[in-house]
Amino acid sequence: MSLCMLSQNFTPRTQEDMMDIFRKVKDVGYSSRMSFLLDAGLHFVKNAFWKINNSSPYDAYSYDLLHAFDAGEWGKHLWPLVLEVLKPVKDRISRMHANLYSLTSMRRIPRWRGLKHFHSVAEMDFADGNSFRDILKCVIPCIVQLLPSNASLVHCIRVCTILRSIAGLRVVTSDQIDAYKKFLIKYEKWCKKVTKDHGKTFNYPKHHNLIHLPEDVENKGCTENYSTRPGEGFQQEVQQAYKQTNFKDTGPQITRIDENQEAIARIRMFVDIYDTEISRAMSAEDLTDGCEPPPKPVISQGNYALGSPLKRLSIDILENTKGNLRAYRSFGRRLQEFLGNELDEESRPSGFLTITPYQCLYLTYMSMEDWREKIDILRCNPSFHNRPRYDCVVVNTNPITFARLEFIFTCEDSSNRQCDVALVRMLKNSRWRPRTKWEGCRVLEEKNYEFVLLKYLIRGCHMIPTFEKEDGTYYLNDLVDSDAFLRFFLSN
């Protein structure tokens, strides 16, 4: 049972201690010898590494975030438990909730650049560690209303996500390591409650290895330094090629299969290049979502840039076409009032204004993870890949506020004075709460429409619908990347 204890201190193994135990058991009987070896986790066989001078196999082992956590602690243990717990729910809830049982709500999660989108996550036959990691980032809002109030499983998964986020940081401070240790104690507490509620045992090595992660980070740096993630996809390619052989003398067969795949990929590449050139000739709008390079911005200012411009039009035309929508009522008057309050008379566009709408916004910000420059590519498009997409942003107020992009445009007067503005729908804290309010849970709901200068936007943010509540209520996803985790949760 000691493997499930995360709050206890254990004596680390050293090569000298293990060699000493091995020498001592040589002179005892078989039963006593096997008992000593079992307690030490040894066999009565010399370790080959003992012959290497200045070696330490126990210190050489490093925590493998991909296999030990993403595909292990979460993918092999907690995720199957989630699916098992939700099975009986299907028989007790309404038909609408039965759709949620199959986690089809996962497909309704708004897309985000770099985040894998799932359609039938519960029916997947196979998922690698990277897929499990993306599931972990979004799973809690999809299951919280299917479980009882104050569900131990929700709390357990939440603390699991916190441990995973801290472990995945590229720059780790001593304060963050201390926070990891504190959440490790909380994780043990919730795991015990999950064991009591659902019978899940956490007495396995990958769970125990969570204790050793802080020591690895302190001695060897961030987990990215010893990650097995690079090149992980190549193993799947070799496995697929191996299955196409007759399992005899496979080397030449795999080589021939690989040559054929490379030839096919080369042909596919030229076809894609041709299609891309044709597409660019027909439209300048970016039709990608992070899989290919986005179009070059047409306007760049400070911390932001604009892309995918539309045809210039007057405010009168805009009000005539969209005036029936709440966001665009009295658009011209409200815009003039906003510009008058925000800009001085010399730089303020005035008089007859024309506007140029844009459907793509690039926000540049300094990551709180490693202080490097990062870019969010945000969409404000009624038909992006045949679906409406209006991303959310963080507004630089004190404290910070959140908003959904409704309309991005540049307004210009007859004197060529310009101003880049966004019409946004503000998101305020909601009184509604889910059945289980997990640590860091933040629910926001849509409120009024406001104008904001683009220079006051910090970065994008990912909002997940509450599903059970009416439209316009969202959970803030603070797990979408490391900067969001630090900015929205850990730093607070």
* Number of helical regions: 16
Provide the succession of SSEs: HHHHHHHHHHHHHEEEHHEEEEEEEEEH
Query: Beta-strand percentage?
Result: 15-25%
Helices and strands: which structural class? Answer: alpha+beta
What characteristic shape results from the CA principal axes? elongated
**In total, how many domains does the architecture comprise?**
4
Q: Percent of residues in helical segments?
A: 40-55%
Model description:
The protein is an alpha+beta fold. It folds into 4 domains: 2-60, no CATH class; 65-226, no CATH class; 232-282; 299-490, no CATH class. Helices cover 41% and strands 19% of the residues. The chain is built from 16 helices and 12 strands. The protein has a 6-stranded antiparallel β-barrel. A hairpin with a 5-residue loop joins strand 8 (401-412) and strand 9 (418-429). Helix 4 (65-86) packs parallel to helix 7 and helix 4 (65-86) runs antiparallel to helix 8 (152-167).
List keywords for this structure.
alpha+beta; 4 domains; 6-stranded antiparallel beta barrel; 16 helices; 12 strands; elongated
Layout of helices and strands:
Blueprint: H1 15-24, H2 30-40, H3 57-60, H4 65-86, H5 89-92, H6 95-101, H7 129-143, H8 152-167, H9 174-198, H10 205-208, H11 213-220, H12 232-243, H13 250-282, E1 299-301, E2 304-309, E3 313-314, H14 315-322, H15 331-342, E4 354-366, E5 373-384, E6 387-390, E7 392-395, E8 401-412, E9 418-429, E10 443-453, E11 457-465, E12 473-477, H16 482-490
Antiparallel strand pairs: 1-2, 2-4, 3-4, 4-5, 4-8, 5-6, 7-8, 7-11, 8-9, 9-10, 10-12, 11-12
Helix pairs in contact: 4-7, 4-8, 7-8, 8-9
